[in-house]
Amino acid sequence: MYNDDKKSKIVRQNRKKEHIEFALKAAAESNGSNGFSDVHLLYEALPELNLDEIDTTLCFLGKRLNAPLLINAMTGGHPEVKYINRSLAKVAARAGIAMAVGSQIAGLEDPDVQDTYKVARDENPNGVLLANVSALTPSVMVKKAIEMIGADGVQLHLNVAQELAMTEGDRNFKGTLANIERIVSFSNVPVIVKEVGFGLSRETIKKIYDAGVHYIDVAGKGGIDFIKIECMRSGQDYLGNYQNIGISTAASLIGAHSLNLPLGIIASGGFRGGSDVASALALGAELVGIAGHFLQVLFQGAEYGLNERVDRIIDNLRRTMLMVGASNLKELAGKPVIITGSTAEWLNWRGIDI
Length: 354
Ligand SMILES: Cc1cc2nc3c(=O)[nH]c(=O)nc-3n(C[C@H](O)[C@H](O)[C@H](O)COP(=O)(O)O)c2cc1C
Fold this sequence. Notes:
Layout: H1 6-27, E1 39-41, E2 58-60, E3 63-65, E4 69-71, H2 82-95, E5 98-100, H3 105-109, H4 115-123, E6 129-134, H5 139-149, E7 153-157, H6 160-165, H7 176-186, E8 191-194, H8 202-210, E9 215-217, H9 226-234, H10 249-258, E10 264-268, H11 274-282, E11 287-290, H12 292-323, H13 329-332, E12 337-339, H14 341-349
Parallel strand pairs: 4-5, 4-11, 5-6, 6-7, 7-8, 8-9, 9-10, 10-11
Antiparallel strand pairs: 1-12, 2-3
Helix pairs in contact: 1-9, 1-12, 2-4, 2-12, 5-7, 10-14, 11-12
The structure holds flavin mononucleotide (FMN).
Flavin mononucleotide is lined by residues 19-20, 23, 72-75, 102-103, 132, 155, 157, 194, 196-197, 219, 223-224, 268-271, 290-293, 295.
């Protein structure tokens, strides 16, 4: 919800800076598994393929991508984070992958910080760029966020767990679904509903789909933990109080795919390497989003380091595709996957066939 006074605006702008600082600290600690250690692709010892011919390209939101990767929503909204969006956008443009800017509320409230988002479009004029706002944002403002960066799509984030952990966060989430429905009917670009690291259940996804949305990002548990980050920001004890809250990325993705709905699914939450990316694509994801890990790599190795990392993930993806006998992403999506451990147990309890 909006509190339009000057103090709230400053709190929101500073929050974006603090999220970077604490996400870097949190990323250095383990947040448990995103479930992909339980996901195994079946090795093919006779693939009859040539690595040079493995094709990772796809069409997403009407544009060509070199690989099914998304630099997921992180930042913008404070002058000191502009260079981060600039670097991320340069990397996205060079590699031919998609990117989302962070929540644009600060830019909608204060035109002086709009350049911290617009820089992403300036650096990548032809690429896939996604706008990002809360799912509670009034539709007229969502339109402005889309226009601000000439976005190809808009992410609406759901972040109940984060808001509750935030001292200044929302406490009333009534009317979110009706607002999503309104945004879908107003928006001139595709709407993607995402979580921020606690996952989407099948029940939630069904409601989102019934509201007219055709893309989701499960943003599951096992990567950045926003309860921990908000506790760090406010100096509260975390103590693992909410350790069992959230759905792992793997369980959330498999649940989403099992619904058999005509939905574009983005998998995110705790991805770091190309073989897990391949597993997610085999499980029905169209794209894989990465946020915290890319931020960490950017801070450790600057733009050069991030370029290298992205290339390595794409190369690992291609090698994994060859090792499972998939020459392109369509073939990869049909490859057998074996689910073991706590993810299999979770899916069994939920009655999801694997
Ligand atoms: C520093 C930081 C800031 C973020 N800010 C946003 C945001 O403004 N909007 C949003 O939808 N998600 C935001 N996220 C969440 C990510 O987009 C992503 O859903 C989540 O971090 C899980 O992916 P990961 O494990 O790869 O980081 C942020 C993540 C990080 C690390």
